[in-house]
């Protein structure tokens, strides 16, 4: 007889470009990692210690559809580089950080901005605005052997063909190795952890029926329909 008193929850996976699947353990999201986005959100763009919030593994969704969530009238798109780790540890040296990366993909950090704003005013956590069902549309992860370690290249998002967000990965305040090293000082990282690396300026609202097209140069594209 099984030792578990309930059915074992499924391990959540996202697809890889080679037809495989990447099991997700934890999802770390960095906030305000592009200076122009920090400004548009009302914050000083000068380099300050990074901060992170989390989504849940099963928030990541590769279906190509984003169901408009309840209890909100202001849902924003945020296009981000997704980093998938193949190993981890604690106190990872900056020089060793990229050795822990399996691959990269394109993702969206969908945000119930009105609910997030209410939480900010009350000094409460953001999860109600960030970690709701299917709030992390993702494309396939591409292995480092195919895409290398992208540290520059255009990142953009259009809605119904109109350009909304644009920037370059070289504009990230905290680079991928720095994020991995910093996180490992506070958490024990492990295989299956993913990092959403921040969004450029231009975040804005979507409505049911909209089509979001995201792309990151040398990494890939992602098309998501708001339903």
TrEMBL record:
EC number of the protein: 3.7.1.5
Domain Fumarylacetoacetase-like C-terminal: start-end pairs: 27-227
Main enzyme class: hydrolase
SUPFAM superfamilies per record: FAH
UniProt-listed Pfam families: FAA_hydrolase
Position of the signal peptide: none
Top-level taxonomic group: Bacteria
UniProt keywords, alphabetically: Hydrolase, Metal-binding, Pyruvate
PANTHER family: ACYLPYRUVASE, FLUTATHIONE S-TRANSFERASE
Name of the protein this chain belongs to: Fumarylpyruvate hydrolase
Native source species: Roseibium album
